[in-house]
């Protein structure tokens, strides 16, 4: 479907501005003729990725939740006592958001382009 540029600007001024500015460009990294192969390749975005403690802490809403996770992983010996102490100090001094912005539900799906 073709549309005159002037008509597009009149009907959808914000969309026309976005298209002309190029601010919302997405790069196409590959083209696949086989749909299944494309889906498989796309689903590998986080393949083999194992979240670390910071990923878990970034899902917390409160300092108390962070502290609970730090203590739990220290108890299970998934982090060292020294690292736990360092994380607790950072939490006490700077708060939960010092570990990064909050990772919302479906974070990995959104980052992988599925949502």
Strand content: under 5%
Number of helical elements: 7
The description of the largest β-sheet is: none
Q: Flag low-confidence runs.
A: none
Helix content: 40-55%
How far apart the termini lie comes to: 27 Å
Domain module tally? 2
Tell me the overall shape. elongated
What pattern of helices and strands is seen along the backbone? HHHHHHH
> Mean of residue pLDDT?
79
Pairing-aware structural class of the strands and helices? Answer: mainly alpha
Quickly list its features:
7 helices, 2 domains, 0% strand
Provide an overview of this structure.
The chain has 115 residues and is mainly alpha-helical. It has 2 domains: 5-42, no CATH class; 53-111, no CATH class. It is 53% helix and 0% strand. It has 7 helices and no strands. α1 (5-11) packs across α2 (13-21). The two termini are 27 Å apart. The mean pLDDT is 79.
Helices and strands in order:
Elements: H1 5-11, H2 13-21, H3 35-42, H4 53-57, H5 63-75, H6 81-94, H7 107-111
Helix pairs in contact: 1-2, 5-6
Task: Give a quick rundown of the structure.
By secondary structure, this protein is mainly alpha-helical.
């Amino acid at each position: 479907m073709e549309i005159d540029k002037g008509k597009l600007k009149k009907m959808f001024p914000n969309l026309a501005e976005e298209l002309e500015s190029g601010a919302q460009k997405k790069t196409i990294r590959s083209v696949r003729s086989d749909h299944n192969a494309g889906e498989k390749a796309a689903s590998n975005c986080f393949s083999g990725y194992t979240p670390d403690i910071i990923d878990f802490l970034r899902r917390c809403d409160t300092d108390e939740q962070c502290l609970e996770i730090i203590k739990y992983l220290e108890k299970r010996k998934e982090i060292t006592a020294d690292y736990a102490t360092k994380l607790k100090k950072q939490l006490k001094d700077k708060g939960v958001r010092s570990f990064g912005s909050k990772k919302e539900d479906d974070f990995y799906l959104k980052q992988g382009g599925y949502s």
